[in-house]
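Final report, results section. Input specification for complex C-07:
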Amino acid sequence: MKILLAFVFLLPALGNAQDTHDHHSHEGHLHEQMVDGEKLEVDVERFDKFVEGLKDKQIAVVSVKGMVCDFCAQGIEKTFKKDKTVAKIDVDLNKGKVFIAYQMNTKIDFEKIKKMIVSNGQNATKLQVLKL
Amino acid sequence: MAFSGNMYNSLYYHFSPTYRYSVGIESVEDKFFNQQYSYFRFTYLLNRRNTENSQGNLYFQSGLSSDGLDGHFYGLHGDWETRRWFIGFNYRDVKNSLKNYTDQFLQVGVAPYLGAYGDFHTWIMIKTKKNTLLGDWSTFPVLKFFKGNFLIEFGYNDQTEWDALVMYRF
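Structure output:
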Protein backbone atom coordinates (compact mmCIF):
# COMPACT_ATOMS: atom_id res chain seq x y z
CA MET A 1 0.00 0.00 0.00
CA LYS A 2 2.85 2.41 0.86
CA ILE A 3 4.43 1.73 -2.51
CA LEU A 4 1.10 2.47 -4.21
CA LEU A 5 0.76 5.77 -2.34
CA ALA A 6 4.34 6.80 -3.10
CA PHE A 7 3.72 6.03 -6.75
CA VAL A 8 0.54 8.10 -6.75
CA PHE A 9 2.39 11.14 -5.40
CA LEU A 10 5.07 10.80 -8.08
CA LEU A 11 2.57 10.66 -10.95
CA PRO A 12 1.98 14.41 -11.38
CA ALA A 13 5.73 14.86 -11.84
CA LEU A 14 5.67 12.17 -14.51
CA GLY A 15 2.82 14.00 -16.21
CA ASN A 16 4.66 17.31 -16.14
CA ALA A 17 7.63 15.63 -17.75
CA GLN A 18 5.37 14.63 -20.63
CA ASP A 19 4.09 18.18 -21.01
CA THR A 20 7.59 19.39 -21.73
CA HIS A 21 7.66 20.27 -25.40
CA ASP A 22 10.20 22.05 -27.53
CA HIS A 23 8.94 25.54 -26.97
CA HIS A 24 9.46 27.88 -29.87
CA SER A 25 7.97 31.00 -31.35
CA HIS A 26 4.65 30.51 -33.13
CA GLU A 27 4.81 33.87 -34.88
CA GLY A 28 3.54 33.65 -38.42
CA HIS A 29 2.42 30.04 -38.02
CA LEU A 30 -0.67 28.64 -39.70
CA HIS A 31 -2.67 28.30 -36.50
CA GLU A 32 -2.77 32.11 -36.29
CA GLN A 33 -4.63 32.40 -39.59
CA MET A 34 -8.26 33.43 -39.50
CA VAL A 35 -10.62 30.91 -41.09
CA ASP A 36 -14.03 32.30 -42.05
CA GLY A 37 -13.43 35.18 -39.65
CA GLU A 38 -12.56 32.90 -36.74
CA LYS A 39 -9.26 31.98 -35.15
CA LEU A 40 -8.37 28.31 -34.99
CA GLU A 41 -8.80 26.91 -31.49
CA VAL A 42 -6.13 24.22 -31.59
CA ASP A 43 -3.30 22.85 -29.51
CA VAL A 44 -0.60 24.94 -31.14
CA GLU A 45 2.28 22.49 -30.71
CA ARG A 46 0.20 19.60 -32.04
CA PHE A 47 -1.11 21.54 -35.02
CA ASP A 48 2.31 22.91 -36.00
CA LYS A 49 3.77 19.42 -35.84
CA PHE A 50 0.89 18.10 -37.97
CA VAL A 51 1.38 20.60 -40.80
CA GLU A 52 5.18 20.36 -40.73
CA GLY A 53 6.38 19.15 -44.11
CA LEU A 54 2.92 19.23 -45.74
CA LYS A 55 2.62 21.05 -49.09
CA ASP A 56 -0.27 21.62 -51.50
CA LYS A 57 -2.78 20.19 -49.04
CA GLN A 58 -6.08 21.27 -47.53
CA ILE A 59 -6.30 20.92 -43.77
CA ALA A 60 -9.74 20.20 -42.34
CA VAL A 61 -9.96 21.12 -38.66
CA VAL A 62 -13.04 19.37 -37.30
CA SER A 63 -14.53 20.13 -33.88
CA VAL A 64 -15.76 16.95 -32.24
CA LYS A 65 -18.00 16.40 -29.21
CA GLY A 66 -17.50 13.41 -26.93
CA MET A 67 -13.86 12.79 -27.79
CA VAL A 68 -12.44 12.42 -24.29
CA CYS A 69 -9.92 9.59 -24.40
CA ASP A 70 -7.32 7.87 -26.56
CA PHE A 71 -9.68 5.01 -27.43
CA CYS A 72 -12.13 7.49 -29.04
CA ALA A 73 -9.24 9.14 -30.87
CA GLN A 74 -7.88 5.80 -32.11
CA GLY A 75 -11.28 4.86 -33.53
CA ILE A 76 -11.51 8.14 -35.42
CA GLU A 77 -7.95 7.81 -36.70
CA LYS A 78 -8.61 4.26 -37.96
CA THR A 79 -11.84 5.33 -39.68
CA PHE A 80 -10.19 8.19 -41.60
CA LYS A 81 -7.11 6.18 -42.50
CA LYS A 82 -9.39 3.91 -44.56
CA ASP A 83 -10.31 6.93 -46.73
CA LYS A 84 -7.85 7.11 -49.63
CA THR A 85 -8.39 10.85 -50.08
CA VAL A 86 -6.90 11.44 -46.63
CA ALA A 87 -3.16 12.15 -46.72
CA LYS A 88 -2.64 12.51 -42.96
CA ILE A 89 -4.71 12.58 -39.78
CA ASP A 90 -4.16 13.48 -36.15
CA VAL A 91 -6.29 14.10 -33.08
CA ASP A 92 -5.98 17.01 -30.67
CA LEU A 93 -7.64 15.76 -27.51
CA ASN A 94 -6.88 18.94 -25.58
CA LYS A 95 -9.09 21.08 -27.83
CA GLY A 96 -11.41 18.35 -29.14
CA LYS A 97 -10.26 18.67 -32.75
CA VAL A 98 -9.43 16.29 -35.56
CA PHE A 99 -6.90 17.43 -38.16
CA ILE A 100 -7.30 15.88 -41.61
CA ALA A 101 -4.99 16.64 -44.53
CA TYR A 102 -6.57 16.18 -47.98
CA GLN A 103 -5.10 16.55 -51.44
CA MET A 104 -5.75 19.98 -52.91
CA ASN A 105 -8.15 18.64 -55.57
CA THR A 106 -10.36 16.79 -53.04
CA LYS A 107 -13.80 18.23 -52.39
CA ILE A 108 -14.15 18.27 -48.61
CA ASP A 109 -17.63 17.11 -47.69
CA PHE A 110 -18.60 17.97 -44.10
CA GLU A 111 -21.64 15.67 -44.23
CA LYS A 112 -19.34 12.75 -45.09
CA ILE A 113 -16.98 13.73 -42.26
CA LYS A 114 -19.92 13.93 -39.84
CA LYS A 115 -21.04 10.43 -40.82
CA MET A 116 -17.54 9.04 -40.33
CA ILE A 117 -17.30 10.62 -36.87
CA VAL A 118 -20.78 9.41 -35.89
CA SER A 119 -19.89 5.87 -37.00
CA ASN A 120 -17.31 6.00 -34.25
CA GLY A 121 -19.79 7.29 -31.64
CA GLN A 122 -18.85 10.99 -31.50
CA ASN A 123 -20.37 14.11 -33.09
CA ALA A 124 -18.68 16.56 -35.46
CA THR A 125 -19.98 20.09 -34.93
CA LYS A 126 -17.80 22.43 -36.98
CA LEU A 127 -15.43 22.38 -39.94
CA GLN A 128 -12.71 24.88 -40.75
CA VAL A 129 -10.54 24.44 -43.83
CA LEU A 130 -7.06 25.87 -44.41
CA LYS A 131 -5.16 25.64 -47.66
CA LEU A 132 -1.39 25.17 -47.56
CA MET B 1 -9.79 -8.29 -21.75
CA ALA B 2 -8.58 -10.23 -18.72
CA PHE B 3 -9.99 -9.73 -15.23
CA SER B 4 -8.95 -11.16 -11.91
CA GLY B 5 -10.84 -10.57 -8.66
CA ASN B 6 -11.82 -12.26 -5.43
CA MET B 7 -14.90 -13.91 -7.01
CA TYR B 8 -13.66 -14.95 -10.44
CA ASN B 9 -11.00 -14.75 -13.09
CA SER B 10 -12.06 -14.26 -16.68
CA LEU B 11 -10.83 -13.77 -20.20
CA TYR B 12 -13.18 -11.86 -22.48
CA TYR B 13 -12.86 -11.44 -26.23
CA HIS B 14 -15.42 -9.23 -27.92
CA PHE B 15 -16.10 -7.67 -31.27
CA SER B 16 -18.00 -4.45 -31.99
CA PRO B 17 -19.53 -4.36 -35.51
CA THR B 18 -20.69 -0.82 -34.68
CA TYR B 19 -20.18 1.37 -31.63
CA ARG B 20 -23.79 0.52 -30.65
CA TYR B 21 -23.23 -3.09 -29.67
CA SER B 22 -20.71 -5.84 -29.15
CA VAL B 23 -20.77 -9.61 -29.04
CA GLY B 24 -18.18 -11.82 -27.43
CA ILE B 25 -17.15 -14.83 -25.41
CA GLU B 26 -16.02 -14.70 -21.80
CA SER B 27 -14.26 -17.68 -20.30
CA VAL B 28 -14.82 -17.72 -16.52
CA GLU B 29 -13.05 -19.44 -13.66
CA ASP B 30 -15.58 -19.05 -10.84
CA LYS B 31 -13.63 -19.09 -7.56
CA PHE B 32 -16.67 -18.99 -5.28
CA PHE B 33 -18.50 -22.01 -6.75
CA ASN B 34 -15.31 -23.64 -8.04
CA GLN B 35 -16.74 -23.89 -11.58
CA GLN B 36 -15.53 -23.20 -15.08
CA TYR B 37 -17.84 -22.01 -17.84
CA SER B 38 -18.15 -19.49 -20.65
CA TYR B 39 -20.58 -16.67 -21.28
CA PHE B 40 -21.79 -15.74 -24.74
CA ARG B 41 -22.13 -12.04 -24.20
CA PHE B 42 -24.15 -9.26 -25.80
CA THR B 43 -23.71 -5.60 -24.87
CA TYR B 44 -25.86 -2.78 -26.23
CA LEU B 45 -25.37 0.97 -25.90
CA LEU B 46 -28.72 2.28 -24.64
CA ASN B 47 -27.72 5.90 -24.57
CA ARG B 48 -24.70 8.07 -25.23
CA ARG B 49 -24.42 11.75 -24.47
CA ASN B 50 -21.55 13.64 -26.07
CA THR B 51 -20.68 17.19 -25.08
CA GLU B 52 -17.67 19.33 -25.88
CA ASN B 53 -15.81 18.09 -22.79
CA SER B 54 -17.50 14.89 -21.75
CA GLN B 55 -19.06 11.61 -22.78
CA GLY B 56 -21.71 9.65 -20.88
CA ASN B 57 -22.75 6.09 -21.70
CA LEU B 58 -25.38 3.66 -20.51
CA TYR B 59 -25.09 0.04 -21.61
CA PHE B 60 -27.29 -3.01 -21.29
CA GLN B 61 -25.18 -6.11 -20.77
CA SER B 62 -26.07 -9.77 -20.83
CA GLY B 63 -24.50 -13.19 -20.96
CA LEU B 64 -25.69 -16.73 -21.50
CA SER B 65 -23.69 -19.49 -19.83
CA SER B 66 -22.31 -22.48 -21.70
CA ASP B 67 -23.85 -24.55 -18.86
CA GLY B 68 -27.32 -23.83 -20.24
CA LEU B 69 -30.22 -21.44 -19.79
CA ASP B 70 -30.07 -21.74 -15.98
CA GLY B 71 -26.85 -19.79 -16.03
CA HIS B 72 -27.08 -16.23 -17.33
CA PHE B 73 -26.74 -12.62 -16.29
CA TYR B 74 -28.07 -9.26 -17.31
CA GLY B 75 -27.47 -5.77 -16.04
CA LEU B 76 -26.43 -2.22 -16.66
CA HIS B 77 -23.11 -0.50 -17.01
CA GLY B 78 -22.74 3.27 -17.06
CA ASP B 79 -19.97 5.78 -17.17
CA TRP B 80 -19.42 9.48 -17.52
CA GLU B 81 -16.02 10.97 -18.15
CA THR B 82 -14.19 14.12 -19.01
CA ARG B 83 -10.48 14.21 -19.64
CA ARG B 84 -10.03 14.91 -15.90
CA TRP B 85 -12.88 13.08 -14.13
CA PHE B 86 -14.43 9.64 -14.35
CA ILE B 87 -17.41 8.01 -12.71
CA GLY B 88 -18.71 4.57 -13.58
CA PHE B 89 -20.94 1.85 -12.24
CA ASN B 90 -21.78 -1.73 -13.04
CA TYR B 91 -24.74 -3.85 -11.92
CA ARG B 92 -25.26 -7.51 -12.76
CA ASP B 93 -28.06 -9.85 -11.77
CA VAL B 94 -26.59 -13.36 -12.06
CA LYS B 95 -28.57 -16.61 -12.25
CA ASN B 96 -26.48 -19.59 -11.34
CA SER B 97 -27.53 -23.27 -11.15
CA LEU B 98 -26.40 -23.24 -7.49
CA LYS B 99 -27.43 -19.79 -6.22
CA ASN B 100 -28.53 -16.44 -7.66
CA TYR B 101 -26.73 -13.25 -6.71
CA THR B 102 -26.04 -9.65 -7.71
CA ASP B 103 -22.67 -8.11 -8.35
CA GLN B 104 -22.12 -4.36 -8.46
CA PHE B 105 -19.49 -1.67 -8.27
CA LEU B 106 -19.09 2.06 -8.34
CA GLN B 107 -15.85 3.73 -9.38
CA VAL B 108 -14.74 7.37 -9.38
CA GLY B 109 -11.44 8.69 -10.61
CA VAL B 110 -9.32 11.68 -11.43
CA ALA B 111 -6.49 12.07 -13.93
CA PRO B 112 -3.57 13.76 -12.14
CA TYR B 113 -2.35 15.23 -15.45
CA LEU B 114 -3.86 15.53 -18.92
CA GLY B 115 -1.80 13.71 -21.52
CA ALA B 116 -2.16 14.33 -25.23
CA TYR B 117 -3.29 11.65 -27.67
CA GLY B 118 -0.69 8.89 -27.68
CA ASP B 119 0.82 9.80 -24.30
CA PHE B 120 0.95 7.59 -21.23
CA HIS B 121 -2.31 8.19 -19.32
CA THR B 122 -2.93 7.71 -15.62
CA TRP B 123 -6.04 7.61 -13.45
CA ILE B 124 -6.23 7.53 -9.67
CA MET B 125 -9.51 5.97 -8.60
CA ILE B 126 -11.60 4.68 -5.75
CA LYS B 127 -13.69 1.59 -6.32
CA THR B 128 -16.36 0.14 -4.11
CA LYS B 129 -17.90 -3.22 -4.88
CA LYS B 130 -20.39 -5.64 -3.42
CA ASN B 131 -21.38 -9.18 -4.23
CA THR B 132 -24.45 -10.47 -2.38
CA LEU B 133 -22.77 -13.85 -1.92
CA LEU B 134 -20.31 -12.09 0.41
CA GLY B 135 -22.50 -9.30 1.73
CA ASP B 136 -20.37 -6.30 2.59
CA TRP B 137 -19.11 -3.48 0.42
CA SER B 138 -15.39 -3.51 -0.20
CA THR B 139 -13.74 -0.16 -0.97
CA PHE B 140 -10.20 0.29 -2.21
CA PRO B 141 -7.88 2.53 -4.26
CA VAL B 142 -7.31 1.70 -7.92
CA LEU B 143 -4.68 2.84 -10.39
CA LYS B 144 -5.35 2.78 -14.11
CA PHE B 145 -2.77 3.29 -16.83
CA PHE B 146 -3.09 3.23 -20.55
CA LYS B 147 -1.07 3.94 -23.61
CA GLY B 148 -1.93 3.14 -27.19
CA ASN B 149 -3.95 -0.05 -27.35
CA PHE B 150 -3.00 -1.27 -23.91
CA LEU B 151 -4.76 -0.60 -20.59
CA ILE B 152 -4.06 -1.96 -17.11
CA GLU B 153 -6.01 -1.31 -13.92
CA PHE B 154 -5.42 -2.72 -10.45
CA GLY B 155 -6.51 -2.18 -6.89
CA TYR B 156 -6.11 -3.86 -3.54
CA ASN B 157 -8.22 -4.35 -0.43
CA ASP B 158 -7.20 -6.31 2.70
CA GLN B 159 -10.39 -8.43 2.63
CA THR B 160 -11.03 -8.87 -1.08
CA GLU B 161 -7.37 -8.68 -2.13
CA TRP B 162 -6.39 -7.90 -5.72
CA ASP B 163 -8.74 -6.61 -8.39
CA ALA B 164 -6.98 -6.40 -11.75
CA LEU B 165 -7.99 -5.71 -15.33
CA VAL B 166 -5.86 -5.85 -18.46
CA MET B 167 -7.26 -4.79 -21.82
CA TYR B 168 -5.84 -4.79 -25.32
CA ARG B 169 -7.69 -3.19 -28.20
CA PHE B 170 -7.05 -4.63 -31.66
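The two ends of chain B are 11 Å apart (CA to CA). The longest strand of chain B covers residues 35-50. This concludes the modelling results for the funded period.
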